[in-house]
């Protein structure tokens, strides 16, 4: 396939066009994924999720710039997939994450693709997975997937990532959004952005106590303070937890909590270091292989479901389907009986 | 096959900071079922062309209130062509004097909308200009 050859040879236009085919689940897109699959599995995949208003796009912007500068091991090419919700009524979407990423605009070592959720949860995770594969095959070494953290859809997408960042911000409400949404468990790194706002200490305390509840055997947390060389606008108290004397279990990853003020670049280098440290941990502990296995299995399972539904709906005619729904609405048959009827099993 | 969506880039090139019009159009296009990549203010032609490329858009909507349209439009059209995106339709909204409109259309601009233009007209023209074929 010519377009995939061009992609593999570095054409950004070919990459962009293939991403569209993948997103639209066309035959050309599916064939491209088969061709590109052996070329994947190289990039470090970083999920970034959190409630609206936490400053995720600004954080992603700064992290991408930091990876481009290349503190450890040189500059790396960065792909960014920014997912925003589609309107359930009109099917359209405003994809506005690029507004926060102006700094990256002139750099051809960064590829940003905005995606709309388009309604189907399973479909979104599959499309995102395909887009990530194409970027991986095209040679982007760091791929960040940014989504709004609101529930199961985001958990599905988090399964795609090797390292998941959950972003919080102080003052968004009485409860911690991440905890409410139930996505705290998927975090590998917790970021408290907008850390110059009031309430940051209680946000951090709440996160630490939730982590303690989730991981009762761990009483020592990775302590994060701003490094010398940065000039923080806020005072960060030195945490004395480490002096309590218990050694942390080396093979267990304790999600660190890092404060940032993304728009001012504060705390960014520290987050990059935590991401690198997590990658190292994944490789040394054998977790990376396990996560890759789980990731690919999860994708295959999603695909099995999508394929079966498609095959089934091809067997059922539209009029048959509507007649059965009518019967269901009149309470003549139960939902289970309706399905049996459709499959011809009654 | 998933339904193909029309993808549009909405940008404000140059230095003018009035973005209400751009936002109104962006919302209208979204309400018409399109996916709008909104890039915001102070975009250079190069930034606009690169975003259009990466997002594989069908159309670019430019909001120009500064009077710089005769310099910006040809530059953006040229960059799109150079990037292999000669099929991308370029629409311009804002303050465009009557005598400039025919020149812009001749350059290849697909539609021009002054302050009084209706969003219904804009949506209609976008849909008419962008072929939604089955690949």
Report on this structure.
- The complex is a heterodimer of chains A (346) and B (135).
- Chain A is an alpha/beta fold and 346 residues long.
- Chain A has helices spanning 2-8, 12-23, 27-36, 56-69, 121-137, 152-158, 177-181, 200-214, 268-285, 287-315, 318-329, 335-343, and strands at 44-50, 78-84, 93-95, 110-116, 142-148, 163-168, 189-192, 257-259.
- Chain A has three domains: 1-37, no CATH class; 40-291, Rossmann fold (3-Layer(aba) Sandwich), CATH 3.40.50.300; 316-343.
- Chain A is 45% helix and 13% strand.
- Chain A has a seven-stranded parallel sheet, with helices on both faces.
- In chain A, helix 8 (200-214) links the parallel strand 7 and strand 8 (257-259).
- Chain A is globular, with a radius of gyration of 22 Å.
- Residues 216-250 of chain A have low confidence and may be disordered.
- Chain B is α/β, with parallel strands linked by helices and 135 residues long.
- Chain B has one domain (7-127): Cobalamin-binding domain (Rossmann fold, 3-Layer(aba) Sandwich).
- Chain B contains five helices and five strands, in the order E-H-E-H-E-H-E-H-E-H.
- Chain B is globular and about 40 Å long.
- The model of chain B has no long low-confidence stretch (mean pLDDT 92).
- The chains are: A alpha/beta (346), B alpha/beta (135).
- The interface between A and B is large, with 36 and 35 residues.
Question: Can you describe this structure in just a few lines?
Answer:
The complex is a heterodimer of chains A (346) and B (135). In chain A, 45% of the residues lie in helices and 13% in strands.
């Amino acid at each position: 396939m010519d377009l995939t050859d061009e992609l593999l040879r570095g054409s950004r236009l070919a990459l962009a066009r293939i991403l569209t085919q993948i997103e639209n689940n066309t035959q050309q897109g599916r064939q491209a994924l088969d061709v590109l699959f052996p070329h994947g599995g190289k990039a470090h995949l970083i999920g970034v999720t959190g409630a609206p208003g936490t400053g995720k796009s600004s954080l992603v912007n700064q992290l991408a710039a930091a990876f481009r500068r290349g503190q450890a091991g040189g500059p790396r090419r960065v792909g960014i997939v920014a997912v925003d919700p589609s309107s359930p009524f009109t099917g359209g979407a405003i994809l506005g994450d690029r507004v926060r990423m102006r700094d990256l605009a002139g750099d051809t070592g960064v590829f940003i693709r905005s995606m709309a959720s388009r309604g189907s949860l399973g479909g979104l995770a599959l499309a995102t997975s395909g887009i990530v594969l194409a970027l991986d095959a095209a040679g982007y070494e760091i791929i960040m997937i940014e989504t709004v953290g609101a529930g199961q859809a985001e958990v599905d997408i988090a399964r795609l990532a090797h390292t998941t960042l959950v972003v919080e911000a102080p003052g968004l409400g009485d409860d911690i959004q991440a905890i409410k949404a139930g996505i705290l468990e998927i975090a590998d790194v917790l970021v408290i952005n907008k850390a110059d706002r009031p309430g940051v200490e209680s946000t951090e305390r709440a996160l630490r106590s939730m982590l303690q509840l989730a991981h009762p055997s761990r009483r020592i947390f990775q302590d994060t303070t701003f490094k010398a060389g940065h000039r923080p606008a806020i005072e960060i108290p030195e945490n004395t937890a480490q002096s309590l004397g218990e050694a942390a279990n080396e093979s267990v990853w304790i999600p660190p909590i890092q404060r940032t003020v993304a728009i001012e670049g504060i705390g960014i280098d520290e987050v990059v270091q935590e991401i690198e440290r997590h990658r190292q941990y994944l490789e040394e502990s054998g977790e990376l292989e396990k996560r890759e296995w789980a990731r690919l299995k999860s994708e295959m399972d999603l695909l099995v479901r999508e394929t079966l539904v498609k095959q089934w709906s091809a067997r059922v005619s539209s009029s048959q389907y509507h007649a059965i729904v009518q019967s269901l609405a009149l309470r003549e048959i139960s939902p289970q009986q309706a399905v049996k009827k459709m499959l011809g099993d009654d | 096959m998933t339904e193909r969506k029309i993808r549009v880039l909405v940008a404000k090139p140059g230095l003018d900071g009035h973005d209400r019009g751009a936002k109104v159009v962006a919302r209208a296009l979204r309400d018409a079922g399109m996916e709008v990549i909104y890039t915001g203010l102070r975009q250079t032609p190069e930034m606009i062309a690169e975003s259009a490329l990466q997002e594989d858009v069908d159309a670019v909507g430019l909001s120009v209130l500064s009077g710089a349209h005769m310099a910006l439009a040809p530059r953006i059209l040229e960059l799109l062509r150079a990037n292999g995106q000669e099929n991308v339709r370029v629409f311009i909204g804002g303050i465009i004097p009557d005598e400039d409109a025919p020149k812009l259309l001749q350059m290849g601009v697909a539609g021009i909308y002054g302050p009084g233009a209706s969003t219904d007209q804009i949506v209609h023209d976008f849909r008419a200009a962008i072929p939604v074929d089955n690949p």
